[in-house]
Amino acid sequence: MLKRLALALIAALATTLPAAAQPPVWVVRDQDSTIVLFGSVHMLPPGLNWRPQALDTAIQSADDLWFELPLDAADSQAASQIAAARGVLPAGERLSDRLSPKGRRRLARIARSMNLSMDALDRMRPWLAEVTLGVAQLARGGANGSDGVERTLNQAAPATAQRRAFETAEQQIAFFADAPEKEQVASLEDTLREMEQDPDEYAKLVKAWMAGDVKALERQGLKPMRRASPVLYQRLVTERNARWADAIAARLRGSGETVVVVGAAHLIGKDGVPAMLRRRGIAVEGP
Hints:
Layout: H1 7-11, H2 13-16, E1 25-29, E2 33-40, H3 53-60, E3 64-67, H4 73-86, H5 101-113, H6 118-122, H7 126-140, H8 149-156, E4 162-165, H9 169-177, H10 181-197, H11 201-211, H12 214-221, H13 223-228, H14 230-252, E5 256-263, H15 273-279, E6 284-285
Parallel strand pairs: 2-5, 3-4, 3-5
Antiparallel strand pairs: 1-2, 1-6
Helix pairs in contact: 4-9, 5-10, 7-10, 11-12, 14-15
């Protein structure tokens, strides 16, 4: 799920990280194909020097560039419309009534601290409230999608590189919206707890990503989700990774130069795409 941050700390990352630090890159290749896998942080503050040379080189020669979702304006607008349609509770129902007493108090405090409308949040289903809170806190500290990995690399890639996507906006939203409400609530409650008790968690996650520390990324980015909601972890991580590994294996049977950019959490750990490819007997260079 969306990880939380101490926003002031993120801005300091560019000056506190060692010069040699780089996010990790994985490479899959055979006689006529090379596929570079890079883990994204979807929203970043400006000023971070995060692009490894190996990634820049791969981008410039890419025949195709794969993202989780299409990046064009029409798809972004469609995603907003679908989220609004699927993320609102029936008339007369409230999100607060689905939370524990502690969760209700935390939601109210966080909404006040971020100048968010509690009435608006109360009309949202748990999954949309969690996404809204996470994005609002990122934006409050200056992080934005324009400085995120996907849009930066999309702009850097040559116009001749074909843009492709593993999922549609409708599919991705359904992974959240169709999850059992009990699991959505558990995840939201965990997010609210982390936002209050560990407000610098996202800063730690970004710092681990910048340093290429995959063990820290797994500890900070995946273990909380596995603990709070194993069902959501299965839906949002394991099952999607398996489908993406299928697509990458199929692409490897062709030829050419490919760059794959997906959320960093999808590339690490035993359920990550590289691990799944290795279990199929496909050699993967990288951590």
